Amino acid sequence: MSDPGLAGELLRSPEFNSGTSGFFRDLLATRTAQVAVGQAARNLLRTRVPEYRDALADAVADLPVASRWPATASDLVYRGLANVLLHPRTPAGTRRLLDQALHGGVMFRSPHVWQRVRAEGLRGKLITAVSEEAGCRREGPAGESRDVLDAVLGACPDDLADRTVAEVFLVLFRSIVAPVSSTLAWSVLLACLHHTSDAPWPWPATWIVREAMRHRPMVWMVGRTVARSTEFGGLPFQPGDILSVSPFLLHHDQDHWPDSDVFRPERWAESGERGPYVPFGAGPYTCVGASVALTLMTEALTALTKDARLTVTGADARPAMVEGAVPRPFAVLRTPT
Ligand code: HEM
Predict the structure, then answer these.
(1) Which residues have any ligand 1 atom within 6 Å of their CB?
(2) From 3.40.50.720, 1.10.10.10, 1.10.630.10, 3.90.1150.10, which CATH number describes the 4-336 domain?
(3) Rounded to an integer, what distance in angstroms lies between the CA atom of residue 147 and that of residue 82?
(4) Which of the residues 10, 105, 296, 305 has the least number of beta carbons within 10 Å of its own beta carbon?
(5) Ligand 1 mean position, distance from CA 265 (Å)
């Protein structure tokens, strides 16, 4: 769906936005539990931004002059967040499995069947290890949240099975690291393609990130399931049908976004009404992590461009579809200034 009026209605009206959201699938049975877990993870990330910033600075310092993207974006974001996802005293084997999940087809589904089979094996081991860890932590005294797993344990219903806790943790791992790193990669790619002079980028990091999410929103579709027979936009729908809004189409709506096909970060400094902008969804189920996600992405972009110039080679701004719109492979040269 690309009509702004209908899209707004779909994402906001109680008809399609009551009860549980689809984000945690059927892992959390009530909306109260969904909201509590989402907010607990978001609050934890917020308090750990300074630690993320420091870890990211170390990761950027270790980058070679030439790096392969978008994989490097995932590495950077993951290194920044690794201790926030699972704190350092978590068994090394469990942390290693999470490291492997990053590029092992667990975060992004591989297009190749044999890789998907391997990823399923890895996913199974990770779920088992995290559920054992959840069980151990439940036996210990409750304390402050040291990582996302603690945040889930503290906010989820007490009787949620350890295995389900692990599944919820994995949903959060993927939903945090994948869109933040993909948007970071889009931001680098698009800014480099549109600013080729030797001078520093003329835009603040926030404008670049916001415009990257407009021009190439990572989340391709935001869906709502029809609960009862209804008519919408003049068409009949049955229970179980899924209606989806396309952020990409809304963000490229010529009537509401001037020069919609042009990557133009400066538009975020202009006053006046903007077009429909839904990279984080909208309405009651809108992304609870939106503002902290913006912080994580701008911090990463700022660290990458501090005292350095970025240029890209082998770039193609058309998206590849991997459970979302991610950049195709490209190389980044990062040269000190
Ligand atoms: C660039 C980064 C991100 C993007 C593009 C993104 C996008 C989205 C979108 C499109 C939705 C669905 C909204 C809807 O259905 O209307 C969503 C939901 C959600 N996101 Fe994010 N997200 C990002 C980062 C994060 C982060 C860092 C967190 C950390 C807590 C997070 C937690 C959630 C949660 C818990 C939900 C479910 C909300 C609910 O159903 O109540 N997201 N996100």
Answers:
(1) 11, 21, 23, 34-35, 38, 41-42, 45, 175-176, 179-180, 183, 218-219, 222, 279-283, 285-289, 292-293
(2) 1.10.630.10
(3) 9
(4) 305
(5) 23
> How would residue 15 be classed by pLDDT, with cut points 50, 70 and 90?
very high
Q: What is the pLDDT of residues 193-228, one digit of tens each?
A: 999 888 889 999 999 999 999 999 999 999 999 999
CB 109 within 8 A of CB 323: yes
**Domain chopping of the chain, boundaries:** 4-336
Q: Which residues pair with residue 63 across a beta bridge?
A: none
Q: Which residue has the higher pLDDT, 324 or 134?
A: 134
Count the residues in the chain: 337
Q: Are strands 242-245 and 222-225 parallel, antiparallel or unpaired?
A: antiparallel
The phi, psi pair for 288, rounded to 5°, reads -75, -20
Task: Give the pLDDT of residue 323.
Answer: 76
Q: Spell out where the chain has E strands.
A: 66-69, 222-225, 230-232, 235-237, 242-245, 308-313, 319-321, 325-327, 330-336
C-alpha–C-alpha distance, residues 279 and 291, integer Å: 12
How many other CB atoms are found less than 10 A from the CB of residue 62?
Answer: 10
